Amino acid sequence: MEHNHDTHEACCEAHTLTVEKVAGNLPDEEILYDVAELFKVFGDSTRVRIICALFESEMCVCGIAEVLGMTQSAISHQLRVLKQARLVKYRREGKTVFYSLADAHIKTIFNQAFEHVME
Amino acid sequence: MEHNHDTHEACCEAHTLTVEKVAGNLPDEEILYDVAELFKVFGDSTRVRIICALFESEMCVCGIAEVLGMTQSAISHQLRVLKQARLVKYRREGKTVFYSLADAHIKTIFNQAFEHVME
DNA sequence: TTAACATATGAGCCATTGTTCATATGTATT
DNA sequence: AATACATATGAACAATGGCTCATATGTTAA
Predict the structure, then answer these.
(1) Domain range holding B39?
(2) Cβ distance of A72 and B7 shorter than 8 Å
(3) pTM (2 decimals)?
(4) Does at least one atom of strand D sit less than 7 Å from the CB of A21?
(5) Looking at residue B84, which CATH number applies to its domain?
(6) Which nucleotides of D are covered by protein (CB under 7 A)?
(7) Environment class of residue B91 by beta-carbon count within 10 Å: exposed (0-12), middle (13-18) or buried (19+)?
(8) How many domains does chain B divide into?
(9) What is the pLDDT of residues B8-50, one digit of tens each?
(10) Could you tell me if residue A14 is inside a domain?
(11) Which residues on A lie below 8 Å from B52 (Cβ)?
């Protein structure tokens, strides 16, 4: 019987069955990548604060900026990221643009995250 | 009546009530930061793949490396990150170290993330 | 149309981060 | 003790990402 792994031999020899089973059951590469991308969007405290603000109420850009104590530009850049991830939606009312959350999963994900953090 | 915000005036004047209400209801700064840190850990496709592999079964470092087709060093570095976030635990068995998931919330969070990605 | 305001966006800067490479630590075997 | 193996870790490098600054776009009112 032959094994031709560059790196390690003995240990992997012993666990070949597990490795093959696990490798076979992994979700598609593309989906795993998208999931990581989604978490990457959540992985910034400014965006987390924006999302939590939007849990309370829809808000205009300058309103969010004021709540977070940041510039309009910084908020707008981050809203762009959230928009591209289809996590927020917006509606225009005159000069003002109101943003709100676009996905029900977000609440569940954040609730679990809060629970983990406060274990 | 006075308002002294550097940036914007008219819009915020109109939405002062909303802004104050939302600002008052935001979770503690520290918790929001920790939540972002948690998502930051999830926000890398290597770590996502490691976590998904561990959903299937506990595994040794070289086993994970083989499943993902990456070096032992890269995996070890990432397991360190997961360990520091208290997301994985490990047990030693001779020369081998087996890693497994340490938190029940992870599964829920990932399930929701998968649902969002595949909407 | 011109002015004022709300928002969006591009360029640039600095900080963070994932990987590689080399090496150290820890464990078992001889 | 010496060797072999599994894992951990530090330094360095390249790439990514968030913020600022300047400016563009879009909308309303005069």
Answers:
(1) 34-118
(2) yes
(3) 0.90
(4) no
(5) 1.10.10.10
(6) 4-11, 17-23, 26-28
(7) exposed
(8) 1
(9) 456 767 788 889 999 999 999 999 999 999 999 999 999 999 9
(10) no
(11) 26-27, 32
